[in-house]
Specification:
EC 3.5.-.-; six-stranded mixed β-sheet; Diaminopimelate Epimerase, Chain A, domain 1; Amidohydrolase; single chain; 18 helices; 26 strands; 18% strand; globular; plasmid; TIM Barrel
Length: 656
């Protein structure tokens, strides 16, 4: 294929002229200029020798794409695309890999998550509890007082081969002096003795409403906190821990965005969150936007923070900002996912469904009426059909006075929604954003309600058949993982991360349909239809070149797919393996004891690591450390003796 490098290394050329060692200096060459923290071609960019899933029904397959001024210029056969591009176009050889539109997460808590990412040890995707505890012990050894070791969601006990969580005794043995906080879904948190001392929980500490501090026979806290069903006890306890200073939060958010880029994510809709006050807690993302250092497109929703003051919040905000304010990188999307606290049901399937209070409708109506009058789209968290039905009573009442059509409002979650309520949503012009929470909680749902009831949780096929806009996301980082490929696997296979088969074929999606829910379908939820989500001339040039062919790999390999090259508006925001030299450098994680500096984020499957090692040529990747090189972490990392340094993880294979 013309334009290829032929040397198995850099994968980028100027009519094939830039290859091998020349790629190492490419970012400094006049071919590429700087746009914030991303490398941006000064001329056109060509991607050739690709298997392109365009999601453009008029042009579904292609092998080449040209990009100009941040948008796709031409997509099709290579000869035609080359003819459309400038003669000096920069060429990237995809080497036969699958290229897809950049993934869009319609429900994630990325702004809050970014502020804390560098402090968190991620157990996302870790296959055994033994592995997880080895990571924990190593992090305890690195973490200075008075800092905590935190594992904040993104995993379930069912993913572990042992099918259990660590015991409190195991936690205390692993960390006798360093506070450890482990959040498991929204049902419980485990604290060691040092963490209990740090937060001040003792015999006289009362249980908060909706939560329980488990105690021993003498009345002393054991370290187990339970959401019954209100998760506020979990949030509020976590909030007592140390926070990163502003400079570190900037660094942390950049690393979290790059982690998402490494999985092919280019856009998200931020769903707000508890302890995420506007505008104070948006200062870091605002700074990154102003400095041109955002590598994700973020549309954000505003989440009310105080019960009984919800109407005041939205009235104040809607007097000063409006949906659409911002640009393609950062813009206000609307209200939610919390509109009023009395309408928030909780999704802990270990406990019975909570009944919403009788004042739900009277609290919700004035907020919805205000939003409809001021043409603010909204999203509303609702797990159960009963909650959805009562909310729809309010929406229909407001709709009689103020038509809701065209507002692109929607429900989040909707695991147990009925066909009747699906039809009511369709009649009002609403949508439903689904997340892969059942991939993490499906076993608990089956235990409580039975396998038959779990077969359509949520009933995605029925939603789509009714003509309701449906989009997909993760609800990361505190419940499910942020990894989009786990969600895509769940949509396609109907299985939990623990391997339980939940859904019959009728409620599973084919791979292309699932991918559409992660790309073009999600643009409805941010009012950006036609602007992105497909590889099509005129759309924003967001794309991901995949480590494995999503359309062809065995189903059990889907969760392990990564992006080897991610483009945002034609700018390289992530590269690895063949394309690692094209990615703009990140500063090393701050603080220096950050788990991100050693074990990174989502667990890397050994087969993916081995494949990347073969491509790189050093053959030194490993399942614990991934395939980064110790030298890339900076001079402060004591990696000169690889075997002794990395031996705390039980291996000495690090590439140096």
């Amino acid at each position: 294929m013309t334009g290829g490098t032929g040397n198995g290394r850099a994968g980028i050329g100027r009519r094939g002229a830039i290859a091998g060692s020349a790629a190492a200096t490419l970012l400094a060459s006049p071919l590429l200029t700087r746009l914030g923290n991303a490398a941006m071609p000064s001329s056109d960019l060509l991607i050739v020798n690709a298997k392109i899933t365009t999601l453009d029904r008029a042009n579904p397959q292609a092998d080449a794409a040209a990009i100009r001024d941040g948008r796709f210029l031409a997509v099709g056969r290579e000869a035609e695309v080359r003819a459309a591009a400038a003669p000096d176009a920069t060429v990237i050889d995809a080497k036969g890999r699958r290229l897809i539109p950049g993934l869009i997460d319609s429900h994630i808590h990325v702004i809050r998550g970014g502020l804390n990412y560098n402090m968190e040890l991620r157990w996302d995707g870790v296959p055994t509890l033994a592995d997880a505890m080895a990571m924990l012990r190593a992090q305890v050894a690195r973490t200075p007082a008075p800092q905590w070791v935190r594992v904040v969601g993104g995993f379930t006990e069912h993913q572990f081969a042992e099918k259990r969580l660590p015991t409190l005794e195991e936690l205390n043995a692993a960390a006798p002096d360093t506070p450890v906080f482990i959040l498991h879904l929204y049902d419980r948190a485990l604290l060691n003795g040092a963490a209990l001392r740090a937060v001040g929980y003792g015999k006289d500490t009362p249980n908060p409403p909706g939560g329980e501090i488990q105690r021993d026979a003498a009345g002393n806290p054991t370290g187990l906190l339970l959401a019954l069903p209100n998760a506020m006890i979990l949030y509020s306890t976590l909030a007592k821990g140390p926070k990163l200073p502003e400079e570190y939060q900037v660094n942390s958010t950049r690393h979290f965005m790059r982690e998402l880029n490494s999985l092919g994510v280019t856009s998200v809709i931020d769903a707000g969150g508890g302890f995420q006050n506007y505008p104070d807690d948006y200062a870091i993302i605002e700074k990154l936007h102003a400095d041109g250092e955002m590598t994700l497109r973020i549309a954000y929703n505003l989440f009310t923070q105080k019960p009984k003051e919800e109407l005041k919040d939205f009235a104040t905000w809607s007097d000063t900002v409006k949906p659409g304010d911002g640009d393609d990188r950062y813009r206000l999307n609307g209200a939610g996912e919390m509109l009023v606290y009395s309408a928030a049901d909780f999704e802990d399937f270990r406990v019975a469904r909570p009944e919403m209070p009788p004042n739900m409708e009277t609290d919700l109506e004035p907020v919805v009426r205000l939003l409809a009058e001021r043409r603010w789209p909204w999203r509303l968290h609702a797990t159960y059909d009963e909650t959805i039905g009562r909310a729809l009573d309010v929406f229909e009442k407001v709709n009689r006075d103020i038509p809701l059509q065209g507002l692109n409002w929607f429900f989040d979650h909707a695991e147990t929604i009925s066909e009747r309520n699906i039809d009511r949503i369709a009649a009002l012009g609403g949508g439903i954003a689904v997340q892969h929470r059942m991939a993490y909680q499906g076993e608990y749902f089956v235990e409580r309600y039975g396998a038959k009831a779990a077969e359509a949780t949520p009933p995605i096929a029925k939603m789509m058949a009714a003509g309701v806009p449906v989009g997909a996301g993760t609800d990361a980082t505190r419940v499910a993982s942020y990894n989009p490929w786990v969600s895509l696997s769940w949509l396609v296979t109907g299985k939990t991360v623990g391997g339980l088969s939940l859904y019959p074929m009728a409620n599973r999606l084919d791979r292309e349909t699932a991918l559409r829910l992660w790309t073009e379908a999600n643009t409805w939820f941010s009012n950006e239809q036609g602007r992105k989500g497909r590889i099509e001339a005129g759309q924003l040039a967001d794309a991901a070149l995949l480590s494995d062919d999503y359309m062809a790999v065995p189903e059990d390999r889907i969760p392990h797919i990564r992006s080897v090259l991610t483009l945002l508006g034609g700018a390289v925001v992530h590269g690895e393996g063949d394309y690692d030299t094209l990615a703009p450098p990140l500063p090393k994680p701050m603080p220096d004891w950050s788990p991100v500096a050693t074990v990174g984020g989502y667990h890397r499957d050994p087969r993916t690591v081995q494949k990347q090692a073969a491509e790189c040529g050093c053959h030194s990747g490993c399942a614990v450390h991934g395939h980064d090189h110790a030298a890339a972490l900076g001079a402060d990392v004591p990696s000169s003796d690889a075997r002794s340094f990395w031996g705390v993880f039980g291996c000495g294979c690090w590439a140096v």
